[in-house]
Specification:
The protein is mainly beta and 172 residues long. The chain contains one helix and twelve strands; from the N terminus they run H-E-E-E-E-E-E-E-E-E-E-E-E. The strands form six sheets. It has a two-stranded antiparallel ribbon with strand order 1-12. Strands 2-3 form a two-stranded antiparallel ribbon. The relative contact order is 0.26.
């Protein structure tokens, strides 16, 4: 059963998954291999995976400014990072920017979680890139693979868009 905003405070260190609403059984995958210190451009790999294994589990971390960050369960202190600097300001098309990993939490690792009518959420950059949303395209991701697949990037002005909606679930 998907989590709601009311559930966030009670999560603590409970692991969660981030599931696409558009692509059946496709989850956000984060491989933080080699991400052991802060670097400006971030590192590691963020893409999609069919089903949820160790690299698809996160802890939702509330930030002092009211935003949230996603910490990898497999790579402690490694967070989901979204850089919308090179993103075109159009709402259609393939999106752009960079989504990867970062050691620690700075502005690129903070998200506003916008609740949607269907129980899902859209993730907007909280401070660094206003009106820029996390986007996940799991086309062709139909079986689990070691390296994952699909595309995870950014989209402008896409609150509630098909590729920009995610279910947050307690990890099984």
């Amino acid at each position: 059963m998907p989590l709601s905003v009311a559930d966030f405070a009670a999560l603590g260190d409970t692991p969660i998954t981030i599931q696409s609403t558009f692509f059946a059984n496709v989850y956000l995958r984060m491989d933080g291999t080699g991400v052991t210190t802060f670097t400006g451009p971030g590192g590691g790999t963020v893409n999609c995976q069919f089903g949820a294994g160790p690299l698809e589990k996160f802890q939702l971390r509330a930030q002092a400014d009211g935003s949230f960050s996603f910490e990898s369960m497999a790579f402690p202190n490694v967070y989901l990072r979204m850089d919308g600097a090179e993103l075109p300001t159009v709402t259609a098309g393939p999106g752009g920017g960079t989504v990867n990993c970062q050691f620690g939490v700075e502005p690129y690792e903070k998200f506003k979680l916008h609740a949607q009518a269907d129980g899902s959420f859209s993730f907007e950059s909280a401070t660094a890139f206003p009106n820029v949303y996390l986007r996940m395209v799991g086309s062709g991701v139909t079986a689990s693979t070691d390296g994952g697949g699909g595309i995870v990037n950014c989209q402008f002005n896409a609150n509630g868009g098909g590729h920009e909606k995610f279910l947050l679930n307690v990890a099984g």
